[in-house]
Amino acid sequence: MSLLDDLRAALGDRAVLTDPAETAGYSSDWRRLYSGLPLAVIRPSSTDQVVRAVTLCAKAGVAIIPQGGNTSMVGGAVPSVDGTEIVLSLERLRALRAIDPVDLTMTVEAGVTLAAAQAMAAEQGMLLPLSISSEGSAQIGGVLATNAGGNNTLRFGNARDLVLGLEVVLADGQVWHGLRHLHKDNTGYALRQVFVGSEGTLGIITAAVLRLQPGVTARASAFCALPSVEQALALLARLRARDAGALHAFEYMSGGSVDLVLAHIEGVARPVEAAAHYVLVDCAASGPEGAAQALQDRLEDVLGAALEAGELTDAALAQNEAQRLAFWKIREEHAEAQKRAGASIKNDISVPLAALPELMDAAAAACRALVPGIRIAPFGHLGDGNIHFNLVQPTGAGGAAFLAQSEPLMEAVGEVVRRLSGSFSAEHGVGRLKTGMMQSWRGGVELDLMRRIKSALDPAGRLNPRVIFPAKNAEDAAG
Amino acid sequence: MSLLDDLRAALGDRAVLTDPAETAGYSSDWRRLYSGLPLAVIRPSSTDQVVRAVTLCAKAGVAIIPQGGNTSMVGGAVPSVDGTEIVLSLERLRALRAIDPVDLTMTVEAGVTLAAAQAMAAEQGMLLPLSISSEGSAQIGGVLATNAGGNNTLRFGNARDLVLGLEVVLADGQVWHGLRHLHKDNTGYALRQVFVGSEGTLGIITAAVLRLQPGVTARASAFCALPSVEQALALLARLRARDAGALHAFEYMSGGSVDLVLAHIEGVARPVEAAAHYVLVDCAASGPEGAAQALQDRLEDVLGAALEAGELTDAALAQNEAQRLAFWKIREEHAEAQKRAGASIKNDISVPLAALPELMDAAAAACRALVPGIRIAPFGHLGDGNIHFNLVQPTGAGGAAFLAQSEPLMEAVGEVVRRLSGSFSAEHGVGRLKTGMMQSWRGGVELDLMRRIKSALDPAGRLNPRVIFPAKNAEDAAG
C-alpha cells in the first residue's frame, strides 16, 4: 500500500511498525478495555518527521491516533478494529530543548515522560509541580492533551495551569509554532488552552514550555485519622488559614480503601489508629537550613489544635523521609490493592467541596442498595473535591456478576454527583469510555460549541476519532 | 426604527439610551484614542435581558460592542462612527450570586467592579487575588474578556487562572450555562478558556465563578534601591528560594520613572536613597498572631543578605500599613505622573525574565537615538517579565512633535522585544490599537487558527468587530 511506502520513505523503515507482535503494545489501552488493529504504528523522531507523516496521512485521508505513554484510564488512544487507522507515537521526541532557571521554565518534547521531566527540572534545582501515579510512563504530550491532575493540583493547578507555550502539528500538517516562554502574553486567543485537554482531537502536541517552581528543600507530612468527611474539610480549612502556600497535597482515603491496602500489599502498616477516614497532608517549602523544622513545627501546631477540636482522632507526623514515603506508599498502592481485591469499578468524580460529605453518604447508600456486600473504597484528591469513588466486588462473590452491574452502579453514583453539580470525569478525561455521558451531561449548547471548534480545526475529523464526542446516531437517539 | 422599538419593549425605555448626552460616556475609550457613535447604548439588567437583546440584534443583523467599565488601554470597546452598532453595557448585572468559604469560590455577575468583588470576598474572610490600577471601574466581565493581569499574577496568575466557570451569551442569543464551580473537570474542551481573553469577540460573559484564596492576615513590604536590572533578578531569585509562596508582588520602577512621580505627585517621598532602579517587594501570608512578625523577619533576613551581596544599595521595610500604602502609592501614581509630565507613549511588553537587562538597555538606546532628550520611564511587573516601557517627551519640547514620532519609537522598541522572543501586549490585549501588529507578530498559522475559531463561534462577525483581527485588506497588503 502506497501510504505505508511513503511513510517508510519519510521516516525510515524502522519507524513504521506493522508486525502485530510489535504493534500490540500500542493497540490496546492500559486497562484492556479497548483493543484495536492499526494500519501501522509510526514513531517519528522529530517535529519535522511528524509534519511529514501527518501530511501524508492527510493526503491519503487516513485517521491518526496520537499516542504518548498509553496510560489513559478511559481508552483515550486506541485505534479502530478495522486496520484503517495510524497510531502516531510521540515516544521518540525526547529532547529537553531548553531550561531556564531565571525564568523558571523548561521546553520539553512530547515524548519525555513526566518522571524524566521532573528529574530534568530537579537537576537544575527546580520543581515541576505535577505528579500522577503513572508518571513513569505517561509522556508530556499526553499529560497535556488530557490536562492531567494528580496530587499537587491543590497548590499548583492542573497541567493546564503549567503551560506557557506549545508546538502543535495540525490535522493538515501545518505547524503552530507557539513555544513562547512568556508569563504574560495577551495577543489574541489563548490557543494553547484550546489544545490542552482536547485529547488529541484538535492537533498533535510535539513540544511544550512548562512553568516551574523553585526547588523544594523542606517537607513535612502527616497521616491523620478522622471521624468524618466534615472534619476533613474542617482540617483543610484550618491548614489553609495557617499556611496555604505550603499545603501541597491533601489526600483522602476511606477506612475501607486503606483496609484493602493493608490486606493486599506487603510491607505496609497503618501509622495511626483505625478510623473511618484518613487524610495524608503534605506540606513543602523552599528555604535555608531551619525551614524544614519550622514547617514541621507549624504542621504539628495545626494538628494539635485540630486534635483538641475533635477534628482528628489520631495523627502521625513523618519524622524522616523514609516515614514520609511510607505514608505515600499507602496512598499510592490504592489502585493496585483494589485490583488484587477482585473486580472493581472506577468513578473519577468531582463536586464542590462543601458537597463532599453528602456525596460520600448518598453514593455509598445508593450502591449498597444495588449490591449488598459491595465494598465502597473511595479515595482521592479531597482538596480539589475530586474523589475516585471506587467500588470493589463483595468478598467471595463472582467478579463477572459484579461487573455486569457496572452500568447501574455508575449511574447511581452519577445521579448523586449530578444532583450535587459535579463532574463525571474530574481528571481522567472522556476518552472512548465516557462519550455516552457527554450527551446527557454536556449536551445542547456546550457540546455544540465543542463540535464547532472540532470542525474548525479538524474539518475532516481525522484526529483521534471516537473520543470525547458521542456518535452522531447516539446523539440523535438521545436528543 | 424597529430594532430600537423592539429593544425598548424587551428591556424597558430607560435601558435603551440614544441621547448623545447619555451615550457619550460609552462611545469613547478611556484614553480618548477612539470615539464612535452608537445606534444605541443598551443596559440590560439580567442574563435573560441580555439574551433578548442579543437575539433581537442578531435578527436585525446589527453588531454588538460588549462593554464593562470601559477602562481598556487599547480601544477595546468602542462603537463604529457610522451609528450602526449597539453598545451593550453589562453594568447593571451586579449580583453576587453565591460565595462559598468551604470551596473558596464566588459566583459574580459581569457588571460587578473588580474592587466590589474583592470587597465581597474580603467580607467573608477570603482574598480575590487580582488587582489592577483600574479596579474601581473595571468590571468582572471585562476583566475576564481581556484576561487582566496586574500586581499579583506572580503568585496567583492572570484572570484566566482564577476562572472555574462562565455563563456566556453567544452571538445568536443562545446561552452557554458553564457556571460550574469545580476545581477539576475534564469533560471535553475547556470552553471557559476560549472565552477568557477573547475581548468580547466570541461571546458575552454575563457571570463567572472565580477561585478565591484564604484571607491574608500578615503582610511585609520593602522598597529597594538597586544598581542594575541584573541585580533585581538576583533579588527575585533570592526571595523565591526563601519563601516563594509568600511573594505576592515584585514591582519594578526605573529611576527615571520614580523621578517623575516625585516631581509631579504631591505627598510622595522616596523612602530610600536615589538609585537607577527600584523594586517594591510585597509578601503576604495567612496565619495566626505572630505570622506577620515572622514574615517581616524573613524578609529582613533576605534583604540583609542581598545588601551584603551587593544586590541592593538601600532598602526600607514598611513598619506599618500606612508606610506600606505609601510605598504602593509611589508605584501606583506612575501613570498619572507620566500624564502630567507631558506627552507619553506606552509599550506594554513582556520578555523571558533573563532577557530583561538586555531589553532595558537596547530599547532605551534605540529610543534615545531617535529622540535625543527623550525620558525613558519603564516600570511594571518585573516578576512576570512584563514591563510598561513608557516614553515621555523631552522636557520643554512640543508634545505633538513627540507624538508624531510614536510609530518609529514603538517600532524601535518592538524590534528589540521581538529579537528577545517577547510580546507586544503582555496584559492590555490587542483591542483596536494593536491589530496592525497581529499580522506581523502572530500572522500565518496562528492568526488563521484564531480566525477559524472566530468563524466557528460568531460566523456573521457581529461581536466586537475591528478588535484583535487586522482588517482583511491590511492583511493582504502585508501578506
Walk me through this protein's architecture.
Chains A, B: Residues 34-215 form the FAD-binding PCMH-type domain. Chains A, B: InterPro entries: FAD-bd_oxidored_4_C, FAD-bd_PCMH, FAD-bd_PCMH-like_sf, FAD-bd_PCMH_sub1, FAD-bd_PCMH_sub2, FAD-linked_Oxase-like_C, FAD-oxidored/transferase_4, Oxid_FAD_bind_N. With 479 residues, chain A is of the alpha+beta class. Chain A has five domains: 2-89, Uridine Diphospho-n-acetylenolpyruvylglucosamine Reductase, domain 2, CATH 3.30.43; 96-214, Uridine Diphospho-n-acetylenolpyruvylglucosamine Reductase, domain 3, CATH 3.30.465; 218-333, Alpha-Beta Plaits (2-Layer Sandwich); 342-419, 2-Layer Sandwich (Alpha-Beta Plaits); 435-478. The first copy, chain A, has 18 helices and 19 strands. The first copy, chain A, has helices spanning 2-11, 20-27, 47-60, 114-123, 140-145, 153-156, 191-195, 229-243, 255-264, 291-308, 321-332, 334-340, 356-370, 399-403, 406-419, 435-442, 445-457, 472-478, and strands at residues 16-17, 40-42, 64-67, 86-89, 96-100, 105-109, 126-127, 163-169, 175-178, 204-211, 213-214, 218-226, 247-254, 277-285, 314-317, 344-345, 348-350, 375-381, 386-392. In chain A, the strands form four sheets. In chain A, strands 12, 13, 14, 15, 16, 17, 18 and 19 form an eight-stranded antiparallel β-sheet that branches. In chain A, strands 5-6-10-8-9 form a five-stranded antiparallel β-sheet. The first copy, chain A, has a four-stranded mixed β-sheet with strand order 1-2-4-3, with helices on both faces. In chain A, α8 (229-243) packs antiparallel against α10 (291-308), α9 crosses α12 and α13 (356-370) runs antiparallel to α15. Chain A is globular. Residues 475-479 of chain A have low confidence and may be disordered. At the A-B interface, β9, α7, β11, α8 and α16 of A face β9, α7, β11, α8 and α16 of B.
